[in-house]
Amino acid sequence: MYPRSAAPRGRSAYSNGLYPPAPAPRCYDYNHQSLAGVNRLDRLPPYEWKPPPSSSSVPTLHTPNMTNVRKRRNAEYSPHGVKRQRFDSSSHPLIGSPLIQAHPPPAHPGHMVAGSSRSSFVGLDSSYSSPQVHSHSQVPVVPQSSNSLQTYAKDKLSDQMVELFEACQQQTSDLAQKEMCRVRLQQDIQRVYAVARLYLTGSSMNGLGCRSSDADLCLVLKGNRKHDPIYVLSVLQRLFKTLSYVERTQLIRAKVPILRFREKGSSLEFDLNVNNIVGIRNTFLLRSYAYADLRVRPMILVIKKWAQHKQINDASKGTLSSYTLVLMVLHYLQTLNEPVLPSLQCDYPECFNPLVDIDMVPEGSKHVPPYISRNHSSLGELLLGFLRYYATDFRWDKQVISVREGRALPKTNSQGWRNKYICVEEPFERNNVARAVHEKMKFDAIKAQFAESCRILHERKDLNSILPVRAIINKESSRR
């Protein structure tokens, strides 16, 4: 990485304005490097973003140890969004050979974050992908145990959080089921849109999913022609009604229109959108955060379950979306006196460049080295701190939650933030992802749940006091 002074934030250090140029097309390894002891998905074959060459080798990846000190971030906040990358139809090949190729990242200095140290990035993690290419997958890697989570589970509350996480986290078999359906769908969709590609996004792919998580799909149609999402989804709805493995198709005309459907014979539900490229970008950003520290995934899973139980986790009903909740958790972990997380977009702007072509998005996140925090708080302490932060410390009327900047920004009078009860910045488009909370009554209910749960959990130190742990575990177990 380059020193902050060497290139403007958000702009690549490379002359062509893109993330490091690839010497050849490559596949993406969805399960990128994590610290020792971090839960990882079992190896699956490679998920292909571009057709790789007919033969390849896999050299070791290496990034030098971090040496530069992170500079204090600019206090100025720009409400202006970023331009979207324009697609080029010529760079859109169909799915090709299933072989893997990986290339070492460029050698460049990185940053050391105050309150932390970063170790060098030393290799490829396990791969994820199409079930039809099992015979070409790399040598399997045994997934690392999550026992090191016990380091942060020295008390009853933390133990309960680990138990809930381990019982409810998405399993390899759950992901494989979603991937098998994606492959079939892509093949059928390409009968209508020959150059279409279908990507799994959201919690299924960013490491923050549960066993019961639905699957988000993004259909990418490149080219100079502007595609009307409603029209495309209507075409797909007619197509899907002819498919033997799809049922209950429903076109939902939301701000981002989706086609909702189920896989026949299972409880697996899909939401498919068209060209919502920012969803792919934030999938890889959130995945980088999810595996930056052992405590992130259990924290987020427990808080999602808590919010669902308290009925404040449904944007369609004027409360918080799961995406908003995730950003709220990451923001809290970034803003502690001893941060659990850094701001990856500030430290590695070229890795999460919002202008980079979609085919290079997965490559950027693979070049972020592991993060080691000096904060050794237990999971229970962090959960209590999270509830307390939003119950008493955070200034809802004056502050904007920004994971991009790793801090609370002053609320401006721009249209995006004016008269909004909750302001949570989308890391790439910089709009308000909490805009669904537009009624004071719902906002007050959300704040009341934070305050009440904080009070009860502080008194009892028992997760069951705010969440029916056993009932949730049993429900998750019965879903698959």
TrEMBL record:
Keyword rRNA-binding in record: no
Domain of life: Eukaryota
Keyword Lyase: no
Low complexity bias spans: 126-146
Name this protein carries in UniProt: polynucleotide adenylyltransferase
GO biological process, one term: RNA 3'-end processing
Signal peptide (residue range): none
Organism: Mastacembelus armatus
Gene Ontology CC annotations of this record: cytoplasm
Segments of this protein annotated with the region Disordered: 46-146
Domain Poly(A) RNA polymerase mitochondrial-like central palm: 157-290
Subcellular locations according to the entry: Cytoplasm
Cofactor: Mg(2+); Mn(2+)
TM ranges: none
